[in-house]
Design a protein that fits this description.
The complex is a heterotrimer of chains A (about 300), B (about 525) and C (about 350). With about 300 residues, chain A is an all-alpha fold. Chain A is built from 13 helices and no strands. An eight-stranded mixed beta sheet of chain C has the order 6-7-8-3-9-10-12-11, with helices on both faces. The chains are: A mainly alpha (about 300), B alpha+beta (about 525), C alpha/beta (about 350). Chains in contact: A-B, A-C. Bound molecules: adenosine-5'-triphosphate and magnesium ion (MG).
């Protein structure tokens, strides 16, 4: 816990300092090349970037305990509410994608482990090879081309309802699915080859129960691990998709803020992401304990 | 141009629309009103093309997809430089003068008549019965509050000095005002045509600009959420209700996503397209291209000091770089090589006798004369600010290497690039005029801006600027050319190409046209069929 | 120990010509080749052989538990008047655990580490009988008590890895006994255990068999262990049956040179566990490359040309159904002029 706190503090400082040392002047980003010094100064005053670095750091840090991440340069809105507005869309996308990926990976992975070399297994291997080798932005482009531009089934950009979710979710799901599928297939295969599975079979337990209960339960630990990795990926991995689909989520906001040098937004997104990451890891650890009595005893 | 009687013109328009007036008669009567023939033809082309559209109730939603969002959620047009800021301002606000036709003829908007009563005084008659979107009438006080602020050298307005000179407004009576400039200011009409008039109450309370925009323009500002600026038709607009009910400026960062949005019917117009995007719709009847850029130049900015302080060296660079090859090979035609120091579509543009066509031998000669023989090294910073910037910079460097100049290229990330202005000998950038007048960019070559942008301190320039500012009519065009010719000879920068602004428009949109300004003053005439 | 064949009764299990093959990269291997034997009610048949000789495959074949890449190629497994090899999955499942129980070698891996002992036992009960959880638990407690687990109620909530090796194997035995099967197959149930515990478990199995009167197939690579529990013994080598005999007779006079070698190398319960075992020279042949003649010929001190070129069939040798697959059985009258 303490370790995590230290981690977050380090991230806060690193983001703050790196942005200011390397990223350039936000006032310059809002003005053309011919803007005069007076105008630049007006912008700097508005942004507070005219103050000394230490004063800026203090402004920033002193706001944090109150949940005050400052005001966005570009949107002139409190950063937290700006991000908060986007969180539902990103969560929706991330979780839809995760569920899609997991459902697919579970069905195909379990079936593949159960019947290696079967058509469904080969289909799963092909799908995961595809998902792994095709870059997300390309998948996004192709999905848009086929299902939006040519067939007109789904919107190409933006968020206007559940239909807007389908293509981005598939694009993100295709990115996380291959790892899920491989882990599920391998761990199920491993579990199904364990002696205790043979024991269950030898005692007349039904195949369905053996597969979906005994083996899956034993494959649950790797599964939780991979879901943890997925969540870590999704924290940043929706960015590309959000840009390709112009999906109004946190990822797109992050990119825009980097482009506009909107320091307060970048800082807040980084810190919140780090916190979510720490939180997710905590939940994963707890899940481990819940799932494996051996870990529970050790702890 | 003299006074144009707008009310009379509107009568003509109504008659034309109702079919009571033939085309020839329209032209006759319009020119009789003082309109130039080409201006009258422009009006006829638009008004005659859709005689009923303007009379119908506004309908449909038009989505314009841009590659950028508003600069800031700050609807004070006088402080921001962004594309979307100008687009929004041109719809939500009205100005004293404005544009009603593609030929860029200036007509009365909030003013019905105007006239120079002295070299520094323009007297204007205000249109009566015009209201802001909140129902308050547009008064002389509103005009004064707005323009006094823009004309105040101490007011801190970003546009001051670029578009607006030091000036102030005198109220003569409720419908008569005078705009008095400190010095003679030739581009005044053009400046007033892009000067949105705000309610005086808003000017007194500028914090309100962070929340919303209220104007007297053809569209009412509705909201700015999730990168979309939404506007609704102002059916009370004095010039008649606009053709389209809802206009949305959407920000779609990704170039592919923008074209996809267009092809999927989620956007009706995408702005500032690349050649790749144009290729996607070429030959497709469902789309057409409108290309009417403001005065926009892609320049390779020189720091006019050290080795580049020599005119011979700068001219050598001009000969060494094959600008046409870069435009054809990299910009793929989305560009236009100028032969003068102002944009080719700028009033007053004339091709200069010395074209600086590609001539490496000449370049070597000039370099040798300046004492350089394979021993000149220039620094260059590159990034992705300008379309195809890295390729263009590579090409420039290659051309320079070919004549024995070594180029030391540093690749910077956009933010760092923008912060490094003035630190490298060569940096690519664009210069755009926010009004339809070359004065905007010519002003960069003197004073503090000249020092900041090009490290330029040439005492010969300010008199040239003043000369064109103080002239009027055709004389002014000549003076503009004089200054352009001087700059062209001096080559304080590489005038690589005009930046074209091809907009791809869905065929569902009719009568969409542009004048060479950043905003969309003609959008109110557009209609959309579903 | 029974010294004569209980021919007066029908066998509980009758295996005929059982052949199980595996598809491997190198080709099809015959892990069990033409195995035939009977198990009479209340009898204990031992199967002995070196590691890899096909003992487990034989056990699993009987249970219908050979999965890909293996399959039973031919044979019959008569049990309860039916040929188990002809049953469908559902019918076979209803026999597993109820009529045939099995005990595996290593109870640590054979029991599921993520489920409690109670959970695993009640699951087996509820896979076959519609009883409540508590009734199933009661049955589990009863069987745990039967195999000598102290405080059985409290063991129900223990995980297998929380128990000692011996206790774990008792749990496995209790599980096999849960639904009172007529036949129990114990596949090296003591191999993974300490020597002292081995004896306890064997003693437990013997007493349970006498008490409950089930038939027992006891698999081991250790003749000493077989001797202490089995009535009859089958000696397997590379999938083949080399000799079958009453246990006593076998120990008195092994007929097959391999059996003799096994006896020579067999540790007894009394032998010093610190002394290395005298191993049989050479190695079991690879199943991909089984000798054309007698499978043991390459390691046999007595092998002849004939042994190498021709495979000896299992033939009756003496009384009590004793059989041996050798041209020159030990202790037999000298035939064909080749003496020893
Ligand atoms: N899944 C399999 N795939 C291929 N061959 C197999 C497989 N299972 C068993 N075999 C073959 O069957 C042979 C006999 O295996 P089995 O497990 O029956 O030996 P065992 O006599 O039980 O040995 P141990 O004493 O080590 O348990 C092995 O040597 C192997 O060649
Ligand atoms: Mg075995």
């Amino acid at each position: 816990m303490l370790q995590n706190l230290v981690l977050i503090v380090v991230i806060v400082l690193a983001v703050f300092i790196l942005m200011r040392l390397t990223a350039g002047d936000p006032a310059r980003m809002s003005t053309p090349v011919f803007a005069s010094d007076e105008i630049l100064q007006t912008y700097r005053e508005q942004f507070g970037t005219d103050k000394p670095l230490t004063a800026q750091l203090w402004d920033f840090v002193s706001g944090l305990p109150k949940g005050d991440f400052g005001t966005s340069f570009r949107y002139q809105e409190p950063v937290f509410s700006l991000i908060w507005q986007r969180v539902p869309e990103t969560l929706l996308l991330a979780f839809t994608a995760l569920v899609l990926a997991l459902v697919f990976a579970l069905i195909v992975g379990i079936a593949g482990a159960r019947w290696p070399g079967s058509w469904i297994d080969r289909f799963g291997i092909a799908a995961s090879t595809f998902g792994q080798s095709a870059p997300t932005f390309w998948i996004g482009l192709m999905l848009v081309l086929i299902f939006s531009v040519n067939l007109g089934w789904f919107p190409a950009v933006g968020f206007t309802g559940w239909k807007s979710l389908v293509l981005p979710a598939i694009a993100v799901a295709l990115a996380v699915m291959p790892a899920d599928l491989r882990v599920i297939r391998a761990s199920m295969m491993d579990a199904l080859n364990q002696d205790y599975i043979r024991t269950a079979r030898a005692f007349g337990v039904s195949e369905a129960r053996i597969t979906l209960f005994y083996a899956l339960r034993n494959a649950a630990l790797p599964l939780v691990t991979v879901v943890g990795i997925d969540l870590g990926y999704l924290l940043g991995g929706t960015i590309v998709t959000e840009v390709v689909f112009n999906y109004p989520g946190v990822g797109q906001l992050a990119i825009d803020s980097v482009n506009a040098r909107d320091y307060p937004v970048i800082q807040a997104i980084t810190i919140l992401t780090a916190m979510v990451f720490v939180f997710v890891n905590l939940v994963i650890d707890l899940l481990y304990m819940a799932l494996d009595p051996r870990i529970r005893i050790e702890a | 141009m003299d006074t144009v009687h707008d009310s009379k013109l509107n009568e003509l328009r109504a008659a034309l629309s109702a079919g009571q007036l033939g085309r020839r008669d329209f032209l006759k009567q319009a020119t009789a009103l003082g309109l130039s023939l080409s201006g009258a033809i422009g009006l006829l082309a638009r008004w005659g093309a859709s005689p009923v559209a303007a009379q119908d109730a506004p309908s449909g939603t038009l989505v314009i997809a841009n590659a950028e969002p508003p600069t800031s959620a700050q609807w004070d047009s006088y402080t921001v430089f962004g594309l979307v800021d100008a687009q929004v301002a041109s719809l939500v606000h009205d100005s004293l003068l404005g544009y009603d036709s593609v030929d860029g003829t200036i007509v009365g908007h909030l003013a019905t008549a105007w006239e120079m009563t002295s070299p520094t005084t323009m007297q204007l008659t205000l249109r009566e019965g015009v209201t802001f979107h909140d129902g308050a009438p547009v008064t002389a006080e509103d005009v004064k509050a707005t323009l006094d602020r823009a004309g105040d050298p101490e007011g801190g307005m970003a546009w001051h000095g670029l578009i607006f000179p030091a000036m102030s407004v005198n109220i003569i009576d409720a419908t008569t005002i005078e705009v008095v400039t400190e010095a003679v200011f030739g581009p005044l009409e053009k400046s007033l045509a892009v000067a949105p008039i705000f309610p005086a109450a808003d000017i007194a309370n500028p914090e309100i600009f962070k929340e919303r925009a209220i104007g007297a323009g053809p569209y009412k500002w509705v909201s700015y959420t999730e990168n979309k600026v939404t506007m609704e038709a102002n059916t009370e607009y004095w010039g008649g209700a606009p053709g389209i009910q809802t206009v949305v400026f959407d920000y779609i960062q990704d170039a592919n996503a923008r074209i996809s949005a267009l092809l999927a019917g989620q956007a009706d117009i995408i702005t500032r397209c690349s050649s790749e995007q144009l290729d996607r719709v070429s030959g497709d009847d469902n789309y057409y291209v409108v290309d009417a850029p403001p005065l926009t130049q892609i320049v390779c900015i020189y720091q006019n000091r050290d080795n580049l302080a020599s005119k011979e060296v700068r001219q050598a660079l001009a000969f060494a770089i094959d600008r046409q090859a870069i435009v054809d090979g990299i910009l793929m035609g989305v560009g236009k090589v100028p032969y003068s120091a102002i944009a080719t579509n700028a009033p007053g543009y004339q091709e200069q006798p010395e074209r600086f066509d590609y001539n490496p031998d000449k370049a070597r000669e000039l370099l040798a004369a300046a004492g350089f023989e394979d021993n000149l090294t220039l620094t260059m910073a590159t990034t992705t600010l300008v379309p195809h910037q890295k390729e263009i910079d590579q090409a420039i460097a290659q051309f320079l290497e070919d004549v024995g100049i070594s180029v030391d290229i540093t690749t910077l990330e956009v933010g760092a690039f923008r912060t490094s202005y003035n630190q490298y000998d060569l940096t690519l950038n664009t210069l755009a005029s926010f009004n339809y007048d070359p004065d905007f960019t010519l002003g960069f070559y003197a004073g503090a801006t000249a020092e900041a942008v090009w490290s330029l301190n040439d005492p010969a320039i300010q008199p040239l600027i003043d000369a064109q500012r103080q002239a009027s009519g055709d004389d002014r065009l000549a003076k503009i050319n004089e200054m352009a010719a001087y700059l062209w000879d001096q080559q304080p920068t590489l005038y690589l190409s005009d930046e074209l602004w091809p907009f791809i428009v869905s065929s569902k949109v009719q009568n969409y046209e542009r004048v060479p300004v950043v905003g969309e003053p003609l959008l109110r005439f557009a209609t959309k069929s579903e | 120990m029974v010294s004569s064949l209980p021919t007066d009764r029908a066998p509980a299990l009758s295996v005929r010509n059982l052949t199980t093959v595996f598809q491997t990269r190198e080709g099809v291997v015959r892990a069990v080749d033409n195995l035939s034997f009977d198990v009479y009610p209340g009898e204990c048949v031992g199967i002995v052989g070196e590691s890899g000789s096909g003992k487990s495959v034989a056990s699993l074949s009987i249970m219908g538990l050979i999965g890909y890449p293996g399959r039973v190629d031919q044979g019959q497994v008569e049990f309860g008047g039916r040929d188990l090899l002809l049953l469908n999955d559902k019918q076979m499942r209803s026999i597993r655990g109820t009529q045939i129980g099995i005990i595996f070698q290593d109870p640590l891996t054979a029991l599921n580490p993520l489920f409690t002992v109670g959970r695993q036992m009640t699951d087996v009960v509820r896979a076959h009988r519609k009883v409540s959880k508590s009734d199933a638990a009661a049955l589990a407690v009863e069987k745990l008590r039967l195999v000598g687990v102290s405080a059985p109620e409290s063991r129900l909530s223990a995980y297998p890895w929380e128990l000692s090796g011996g206790l774990r194997q008792r749990v496995a035995i209790a599980m096999a006994l849960l639904l009172d099967p007529q036949l129990i197959i114990a596949d090296e149930p003591t191999t993974a255990l300490d020597v002292s515990i081995q004896a306890q478990i064997i003693e437990l199995l013997r007493s349970l068999k006498d008490q409950l009167n089930f038939s027992l197939i006891f698999v081991s690579h250790d003749l000493g262990v077989i001797r202490s529990i089995a009535d009859r013994v089958i000696v397997m080598y590379a999938g083949h049956t080399l000799e079958t005999s009453q246990v006593d007779a076998l120990f008195q006079q092994p007929n097959h040179p391999y059996t003799a070698a096994l006896l020579g190398s067999a540790p007894t319960l009394a032998s010093d566990p610190n002394q290395p075992l005298p191993a049989i020279e050479g190695r079991l042949p690879s199943l991909n490359n089984v000798p054309k003649g007698c499978v043991f010929a390459p390691r046999c001190h007595f092998s002849t040309e004939r042994c190498v070129s021709e495979r000896p069939l299992l033939q009756t040798a003496g009384q009590d159904g004793r059989q041996v697959a050798c041209f020159y059985p030990l202790g037999a009258p000298v035939n064909e002029g080749v003496g020893r």
